[in-house]
Amino acid sequence: MELGLQGKVAIITGASKGIGYYTALQLAQEGASVVLCARGEKHLEVAAAAIKEKTGAQVLIVPADMTKEKECQEVVTKAVEHFGRLDILVNNAGTASANSFEQVGSELWQSDLDLKLFGAVHCSKAALPHMKAAGGGSIINVTAVLAKTPPASSLPTTVSRAAGLALTKAMSKDLGKYNIRVNAVCIGLIRSDQIEKRWKNDAPNLTWEEYSQKVGEAIPLGRIGDTEEAANVITFLASNASSYVTGTSINIDGGSGGAL
What we know:
This protein is globular. The protein is α/β, with parallel strands linked by helices. It has helices at residues 18-29, 41-55, 69-83, 106-134, 157-175, 193-202, 208-215, 227-238, and strands at residues 9-13, 33-38, 59-63, 88-91, 98-99, 137-144, 155-156, 180-187, 249-252. It folds into 2 domains: 9-189 and 226-251, Rossmann fold (3-Layer(aba) Sandwich); 191-224, no CATH class. The chain has a 7-stranded parallel beta sheet with strand order 3-2-1-4-6-8-9, with helices on both faces. It has a two-stranded antiparallel sheet with strand order 5-7. This is SDR family oxidoreductase. GO terms for molecular function: oxidoreductase activity. Pfam families: adh_short_C2. Belongs to the short-chain dehydrogenases/reductases (SDR) family. Keywords: Oxidoreductase.
């Protein structure tokens, strides 16, 4: 299938590792130029070098804090100054933050919303005129499957992520007239640095496959998802293969979610 990503320019936030890194890698493999954004410059340099070596693609790194509106704007400005256009934005920056309602203070509420909700708002707002100039584009908001069915002690993450889903739907209604598509992916249990640390601490005698199956017993597909599997779906949503898909969310959770 031809994805139509050759010559496109994509910004990926939270791109130094995990889902963001693998998404940038796959977009680069499909012919896109990629802009990697995260707070840690050293990690970005390592990620960029690996992508260049594996794909030969053009890669720009822009260290930035997605909780700062000015820095979100600067990422977009530098991307367009360097590559001349912007077609794809993957709002992936985020952290896991979960506790009971009584234990979440005002500062944590604000910092979580600043990163996961307003980071996406500010980046998307900055990207809009450039996508309009390019004749369209694709924005993908990375959220969590638990945003649809929040369990106890999952705050503030599930609230911030649920707001991201509402943002996705509302933006898709407003921006469709510009041929700008806006979708979300809802992440379930996907391999990450945090999960790998837990594996090495809790079950060092097990292989990754054994540990994945053990932890994933309650998941219909019976395992933890691979990072690349999440990147596959994001790349599809960024591409021409999803040209009539907007305003929707896709669960990447092995079937574990309780909502469509």
